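Holo prediction — zinc ion.
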Amino acid sequence: MKQLFLAGILFMLTNIVCYAENDLGIKEPLKQGGYYVGNVSPGDKVTFQGETIKTDPDGYFVIGLDWQYKKVANIRVDHKSGGFTMYHLDVEPHDYEVEEITGLPPKYVAPPKDVQDRIAKDAADVRAARETDSNLENFREQMIWPVKGRISGRFGSHRVLNGEPRSPHTGLDIAPGQGALIVAPLGGKVTLVSDQYLTGNTMIIDHGHGLSSVYAHMEKTMVKQGDMVKQGDPIGTVGMSGRATGPHLHWGMNWFKVRLNAGVAIGIE
Ligand SMILES: [Zn+2]
């Protein structure tokens, strides 16, 4: 009898969950590579993938899904007023462009040692910038394009060489032509400006709560590390510095280490 009673309670709780899904203000289905801003009552505690997520004083928080996120996005909200709610948000799989290349002779070109060291240092600087966990609230702004132009490369596209998948393209490439003005798609703080071996003139902007954006191959940069920028402020121009075959902006988004698809945020994926 007691077990039946417990089963009944569980059934009721499960049903409550089904009807509570839109309370967070997150639109379903979620997309792989997307980031989502949710809202709870101030003081509620939000847990995603077993980790507590920072909420701002108004109860806003942000989560990011990696490019192959397969699970349902489970979010637990512990209410300040007592009790908790579980949210099970649907995640829609995304079809990435895959180019299969077979019959290639195995050949590895390793860059010389000094170049390897340079690339490793560049990567460490980028990682450090992406660990920034500030209280900035720019993540709540509605994203705008940093520059408009032809999309010359999509996030997540990858080659499969002799059956081995290569790492996916980590940004959205926009090719409006050399010298086109790039603006900050969200406000924030410039956490990195550096001339990198592979990505040329590179900039990272922190938008708060782990959300950051990266701009690569710029012709010139117009703000300095440590500067605060508002949404729409000019930050640089499109170029082909570093390893690039033509002028374009490589634009990436991250939620801490999780690489995001900027295309999802601007509604083109
Ligand atoms: Zn790119």
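READOUT: Residues 1-21 have pLDDT under 50 and may be disordered.
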